[in-house]
């Protein structure tokens, strides 16, 4: 689909959806929300009037939705009088008639036992009707200070009940809601009834019931505004979708600028969704850039290989230099002891061959340094006996072990793995060297070899908690007496990474454990 059709389709869809949603909301949902809102306002009004009157006992600070028709009737406990309150004033009525006093007592009874109102029988209803008729007759008796004349119209105030509801606000207050109609208008009568501190308090709030057809004409009159709003939203939406179309073009332009200024980074293909003209242009550009990507990848691979080779050569040199320390130290120890004729070292015929062995070890290390490229060009996998290499390493450090009078506790199984013999020996040799260097004179080193791992434990040593996380970094050492250069474990972890092995150094009880996982 081309851009013009796509833009028209987007605009048509958005226009239809927005207009339908807005008109539907204003015509269907808004009137219902208005009615529900007004009903809640009226209910809260009678509730607040009742609560405030119970609290203050006066209308001085009370306002309601219909202040002229809202009034509260208070029937005091054990008194023959009625108190009527309104925003205009208060009326006190004293009841001397025994029949009316009896009726008030019944009202008090049902106030204390309002649950019986649900099961009130016809006789009780007839009783209250008789009381009401009795009151009508009383007003006809001569001698009253006022004259009341009442008449009725058969066509007026013919109300029909629509609905009735009761809401228990709390243990003291109930609100009755009655909806009635005279077939023209609708009314809601709210009656709050409370039994508060022995007094009966009744509040009446009559209001007009809001109707849906009252607000619909207003909404229809507002349709021009709604239409204008819809058009505004449509314009904004059109701008948005126009940007949605333009953004891929800008993306292509920015990508082209990036490639223009890029000389050494890998270039990723640009992704354009869809099947329009812009997406096709993106595909063509991706094909153009693919060759550039291939060239960058080849260059990166070569640089990475050279970097790895440099790192391996650097580590190899460090490892070899580090490894030279042991035979040099052993040779110096033997020569110094023979020169000074100390103890058993007086027998030069016995110990000169050992000096020669150490010098030959130095020669082998120097030869490997001279043949650096051959030794670092690759990994030669072969079946290797770990126990044999371990014994060779222990024999290699035998002079230092005997000099420090270190006891070696060995527990070896027959373990053979497929690995590079030279590299795994360097790992084992460095671990043994570390254990010997950091074990005090007369200490113990325990070596455990099983099918899964090689553990070398030197007792009496400990690595500080602050140093432990950095122990495999170059030039990090816990040695203060031996002044170690901190390369041993760095070399170990480098070779383990090449061989795919895992090495851990941990403090255990009264010792440090180096554990090499062989699987």
UniProtKB/TrEMBL annotation:
Query: Localized where?
Result: Cell membrane
Query: InterPro entries, from UniProt?
Result: HAMP_dom, HATPase_C_sf, HATPase_dom, His_kinase_dom, HisK_dim/P_dom, HisK_dim/P_sf, HssS/ArlS-like
Which catalysed reactions does the entry list for this protein? ATP + protein L-histidine = ADP + protein N-phospho-L-histidine
Provide the coiled-coil residue spans: 282-309
One Pfam family cited in the UniProt record for this chain = HATPase_c
Q: Which residues form the Histidine kinase domain?
A: 319-519
Q: Listed GO molecular functions?
A: kinase activity
Q: What class of enzyme is it?
A: transferase
Superkingdom of the organism of origin: Bacteria
Q: According to its record, how does it sit in the membrane?
A: Multi-pass membrane protein
Q: Which PROSITE patterns does the entry link to?
A: HAMP (PS50885), HIS_KIN (PS50109)
Q: Which PANTHER family match?
A: SENSOR HISTIDINE KINASE CPXA
Protein name as it appears in the record: histidine kinase
Q: Which organism is it from?
A: Clostridium hominis
């Amino acid at each position: 689909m081309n851009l013009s059709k796509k833009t028209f389709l987007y605009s048509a869809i958005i226009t239809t959806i927005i207009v339908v949603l807005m008109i539907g909301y204003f015509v269907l949902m808004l009137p219902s929300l208005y009615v529900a809102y007004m009903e809640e306002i009226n209910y809260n009004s009678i509730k607040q009037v009742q609560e405030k009157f119970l609290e203050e006992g006066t209308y001085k600070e009370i306002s309601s939705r219909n202040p002229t028709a809202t009034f509260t009737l208070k029937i005091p406990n054990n008194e023959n009088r009625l108190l009527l309150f309104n925003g205009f004033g208060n009326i006190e009525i004293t009841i001397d008639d025994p029949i009316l006093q009896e009726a008030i007592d019944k009202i008090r009874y049902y106030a204390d036992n309002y649950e019986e109102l649900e099961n009130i029988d016809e006789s009780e209803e007839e009783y209250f009707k008789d009381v009401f008729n009795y009151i009508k007759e009383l007003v006809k008796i001569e001698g009253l200070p006022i004259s009341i004349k009442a008449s009725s119209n058969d066509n007026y105030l013919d109300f029909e009940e629509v609905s009735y509801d009761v809401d228990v606000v709390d243990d003291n207050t109930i609100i009755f809601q009655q909806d009635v109609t005279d077939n023209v208008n609708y009314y809601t009568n709210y009656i709050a009834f409370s039994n508060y501190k022995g007094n009966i308090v009744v509040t009446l709030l009559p209001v007009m019931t809001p109707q849906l057809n009252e607000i619909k004409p207003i909404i229809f009159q507002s349709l021009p505004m709604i239409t204008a709003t819809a058009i505004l939203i449509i314009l904004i939406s059109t701008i948005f979708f126009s940007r949605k179309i333009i953004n891929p073009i800008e993306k292509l332009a920015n990508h082209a600028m990036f490639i223009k200024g890029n000389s050494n980074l890998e270039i990723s293909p640009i992704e354009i969704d869809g099947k329009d003209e812009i997406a096709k242009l993106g595909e063509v550009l991706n094909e153009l850039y693919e060759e550039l990507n291939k060239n960058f990848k080849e260059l990166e691979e070569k640089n990475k290989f050279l970097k790895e080779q440099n790192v391996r050569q650097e580590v190899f040199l460090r490892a070899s230099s580090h490894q030279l320390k042991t035979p040099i130290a052993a040779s110096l120890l033997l020569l110094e002891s023979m020169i000074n004729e100390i103890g058993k070292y007086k027998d030069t015929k016995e110990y000169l061959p050992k000096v020669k062995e150490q010098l030959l070890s130095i020669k082998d290390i120097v030869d490997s340094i001279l043949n650096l490229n051959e030794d670092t060009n690759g990994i030669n996998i072969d079946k290797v006996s770990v126990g044999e290499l371990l014994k060779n390493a222990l024999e290699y450090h035998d002079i230092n072990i005997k000099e420090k009078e270190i006891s070696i506790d060995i527990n070896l199984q027959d373990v053979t793995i497929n690995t590079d013999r030279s590299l795994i020996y360097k790992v084992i040799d460095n671990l043994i060297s570390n254990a010997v260097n950091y074990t005090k004179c007369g200490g113990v080193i325990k070596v455990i070899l099983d099918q899964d791992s090689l553990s070398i434990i030197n007792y009496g040593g400990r690595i500080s908690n602050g140093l432990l996380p950095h122990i495999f970094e170059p030039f990090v050492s816990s040695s203060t007496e031996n002044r170690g250069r901190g390369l041993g474990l760095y070399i170990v972890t480098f070779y383990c990474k090449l061989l795919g092995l895992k090495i851990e150094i941990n403090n255990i009880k009264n010792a440090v454990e180096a554990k090499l996982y062989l699987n």
